[in-house]
Amino acid sequence: MKLININNLSKTYHTKEKEILSIDDISLDINESEIVSIVGPSGCGKSTLLNILTNLEKPSKGFIRENKPLIIGYMMQNDALLPWLSVRNNALIGLKLQHKLTSDNIDYVDTLLKKYDLYEFKDSYPNNLSGGMRQRLALIRTLAIKPNILLLDEPFSKLDIDSRITISDDVYNIIKELNITTILISHDIAEALSLSDRIVVLTKRPAKIKRIYDIDLTEYPSPSQKRQTPEFNKLYNMIWSDIDHVS
Ligand code: ADP
Ligand code: MG
Question: Is the pLDDT at 247 greater than 70, yes or no?
Fold first, then answer.
């Protein structure tokens, strides 16, 4: 089933000096339970698209239809953990802001912290966590509100390559287990390929859809295993040559 229809979406930013066309006539359907990655050169309009989906920005043209009420979990480019709050209170902050600190919801957060190996650090502070642990915490905070769609904007870009591969496996397991529709923005083709059911390649700004790839690597259970297959390398090269690399 289609969860979201994006119809002929365009976005122009009006600044004092000039107008910047960021997104140019994008139409795309997002299916329920799929993981879709959006890749494209830096500055092409990827974050703009997510900001429109979350209503942080208004489209200049076109519209988005939601086929059921969305509960959006949005993980922005920086993990935005609050250094003065404990791990547990960081995990609870989204619920608190929405006035949903019920005992059931708090139990759910504790379950997530236990499941993803952060419970024993619940009274520590974010600065004492490794990069991968911070990322897991940011994800738990996002999941605490029980979203039915996850928007991840380059969530792992600050991590080193080894942590990125480990956290990709963790995040993939979490998303698949909870069966949450996910849109992942990434400029790392290998990361997008290892996680996604579909990859949308955008042109350089203004972003248009250049090509859409259906990725069928489902026989490999984890992102890190997918990375080691010949099909993976072939797709990697195809997508690489599709992207307008900005030098
Ligand atoms: P990406 O996430 O693909 O790197 P963005 O969506 O952040 O790109 O930005 C796309 C273009 O829109 C860039 O040229 C950027 O400078 C411009 N832009 C983004 N946000 C704003 C804004 N609030 N005001 C003006 N221009 C913006
Ligand atoms: Mg961005």
Answer: no
- Amino acid making up residue 85: L
Q: Return the ligand number nearest the Cα of 202.
A: 1
> Is residue 123 helix, strand or coil?
coil
C-alpha distances out from residue 165 to 132, 152, 209, Å: 10, 16, 27
Calculate mean pLDDT across residues 150-178. 87
Token pair 């006035």 in the structure block, residue: 99
Instruction: DSSP letter for 185, please.
Output: E
Q: Is the CB of 203 under 6 A from ligand 1?
A: no
CB within 8 Å of 229: residues ≥ 6 apart? 217, 220
Compute CA 87 distance to the chain's CA centroid, rounded to the nearest angstrom: 21
**pLDDT, averaged across the chain:** 92
Neighbours of ion ligand 2 (CB under 5 A): 47
Which ligand 1 atom is the nearest neighbour of the CA of 49? 6
Measure the CA–CA gap between 67 and 208, rounded to whole angstroms. Answer: 24
CA-to-CA separations, 182 to 31, 150, 229, in angstroms, rounded: 9, 5, 24
Query: What is the rounded CA–CA span in Å between residue 98 and residue 10?
Result: 31
CA 89, distance to chain mean position in Å, is 23
Q: Would the CB of 42 count as within 6 Å of ligand 1?
A: yes
pLDDT in tens, 11-21: 999 999 999 99
pLDDT of residue 80: 82
**What are the DSSP calls for 37-51, one per residue?**
EEE--TTSSHHHHHH
